[in-house]
Amino acid sequence: MTTESTAANTPTADRVHATEATEATLATEGVAAAPHLAPPRGPADRVALPPRRPAPVAPFTSSLVAADCVAVLLGALVLTDEQRGAGLLMQLTACLAALNAYAGLYRPGAIASVLDELPALAGRAALAWCAAAALLAAQSPPRAIGPAALVTAYGVHLAFVCACRAVLHHRRRAAARAHPRSALVVGPVPEAHRLAGTLAGHPEYGIRPVGVVSGHRVPGESSLPVLTTTEEIHRAVIQNGVRDAVFLGSEQAELVTLFSHYGCASWLVGGGDGGRTPMSQHLWGHEWRRLDPAPAHRGRLSKRVLDVAVAGLMLAALCPLLVLCAAAIRLSDGPGVIFRQQRVGQDGRLFTLLKFRTLRPADDEEAATRWSVAHDERMSAVGTFLRRTSLDELPQLWNVLRGDMSLVGPRPERPYFVAKFSRLHPGYAARHRMPVGLTGLAQVHGLRGDTSIEDRCRFDNHYIDHWSLWQDVCILLRTAASLIRPAGS
């Protein structure tokens, strides 16, 4: 088990105050500092993180699916009444839709040409028709489709699909030129401005840059606003109706996830993809492909099974130790053995975290906003021992059984600090894509106590982006090994 406490005047806390002081100085000197507005509160059980704005199903996508369904019906018209039964049509449609969806042929990607899609369309249509014909022949040999009829049906199908897609792509290009989508360009400011100029000179791509996302501002005039904080990105997305984010050269997993949270599509320009991009899907000669965030809920069932199994066994095995700790606290510090505190969990939901009480705070404000109570003179010898050995974290096994937490995940923090760190550190809010945990990748790398919030954030997002059940097992084993050498705070 791990702890997240540091001294009240630690270097980490100093960095927070220093950042705020720097912004105040910039404001007094007339320099535009990053706006840090306190995020609005949501429902009673949730801290309002950047609001999710799911992208609606595009009419373009619906039209492609409808074209495939109609093509199946037209192709079946050349067959006999006995051959084109409801079963054959359903099998064909389901098989074709699954193959095309897996290949990404229904996604509203970069502006494409039907000639680029023809090999993929032809191959999958042929596979679907051959599979349906083979299944029909196996079920009822007298109804088997002959080679001539099969080729004719396939030809009608493919011709109709190509004609429909040609019309849809033409209409989409016209709409993109007439109504370009607002976009943010992510990358160094000079390169971003050059790309913005290219897009302005070629409206056929349907993208209108409205801002640049960069790690820092550069001196001099800028034709586009430069955004350096999550709050500025939030404002730009909402005020300009941003629907796309264009990354220059390399992707940033945290920002890809953040833009996906807003319902924006992310694109990588000039990053290279091994030559798999169709020839027409380029941005004025630059390679151009869509980026997808890592799935947030993959393996959720297996992770939950591991949590319940391990937490249940540990609670049963450690029951005598839990009773002993509770008795020591009661005798040393009086009543109130369990300490309850609100923390931010997955997707910003609030939950009540349980710990053994090691110190009684002066009031609720101190409990909610004081960064740490480590080395506090009010702490008894029992409380100090529990914190150094991390035994005070054991009641959180009940949080795991309840589903508030997981065994492995980003450590949960109080709402006050979640709001503060989300403003100061891009990507901090993205830590809440998965359940919070008793221990995590950051903790087994020594990022406990007085350590960098930025480093913890990076480790937590890396864990989420590359999650596997085996990684959870490895982190648990490393945590168990670290408990032999207690280093809690």
Automatic annotation (TrEMBL):
Primary localization class, coarse: membrane
TM helices/strands, residue ranges: 57-79, 85-106, 144-168, 308-329
Bacterial sugar transferase domain mapped to chain residues: 303-484
Membrane topology category: Multi-pass membrane protein
Pfam families reported in the protein's UniProt record: Bac_transf
Localisation per UniProt entry: Membrane
Keyword Iron attributed: no
Annotated EC: 2.7.8.-
One GO molecular-function entry: transferase activity
Keywords, alphabetical: Membrane, Transferase, Transmembrane, Transmembrane helix
Keyword Magnesium (UniProt): no
Entry similarity comment: Belongs to the bacterial sugar transferase family.
Protein name per the record: Sugar transferase
